[in-house]
Amino acid sequence: MDWVAVRVTVELAISTTLILLVLGLPAGYWIATTRRRWLRVIVEASIALPILLPPTVLGFYLLVATGPRSPLGRAIQDLIGHLLPFSFGGILLGSVIYNLPFAIRPFTAAFGAVDRRLIEASWCLGVSRARTFWRVIIPLSWAGILTGIVLSFAHTVGEFGVVYMLGGNIPGQTRTLAVSIFDSVQSLDYATAGHTSLVLVVFAFIVLCATYGLQRRVLAV
């Protein structure tokens, strides 16, 4: 087991999940409550696009967009002192974009299932919209939010295409477990590749069991 790759993978998964939690909660609530249907369709389609796109395609476009020949890439370099490709920040950006649907879609479904009458009752009692969101909507949506968090974390752990295209294979920076497996196979070290793959299979099975358990609990409520 490549423990350095384990550390990079866990750091990437935690960072991605936290960013998606911050960005995804307001985005999911807006999608669930907006009355601008045409705009909602466009936003939902844009968020879901990574599900249909091959990861290498997304990684390629991000590589070009943040590279040295891109105005955006040069602006980022001037701001932080280095380019995003082939750095932890680069694979973090790719991971956040690639995992958007796995966080925002469960968040949106959870917010959409909250009884509107409870929200309106809170407003009628003089509770502000912000406090209503945190004291009424979030507690009632906790299972869907937790599902999004679990899926985002687990999906990040198993990423390969986006990470490899955008970050390459730099030990301690961009080499994740999935990249480590690929590298082991390339080196004909099938024993190490098999052991690491088995760990990811067990991890994925546990995550799926937890996700389905949460979904059944939501339906039961």
Give a brief description.
This protein has 221 residues and is an all-alpha fold. It has helices spanning 3-33, 37-52, 55-65, 71-80, 88-98, 100-112, 116-124, 129-140, 142-157, 161-167, 177-186, 190-220.
Keywords, separated by commas or semicolons:
single chain; 221 residues; mainly alpha; MetI-like fold; 12 helices; 80% helix; 0% strand; globular
Descriptive overview:
The protein is mainly alpha-helical and 221 residues long. It is built from twelve helices and no strands. The chain has helices spanning 3-33, 37-52, 55-65, 71-80, 88-98, 100-112, 116-124, 129-140, 142-157, 161-167, 177-186, 190-220. Helix 1 packs antiparallel against helix 9 (142-157) and helix 3 (55-65) runs parallel beside helix 10. The radius of gyration is 20 Å and the shape is globular.
Helix content, binned percent: over 70%
What's the Cα radius of gyration?
20 Å
Record field, number of beta strands = 0
Q: Name the shape in a single word.
A: globular
- Count of folded domains: 1
Structural class: mainly alpha
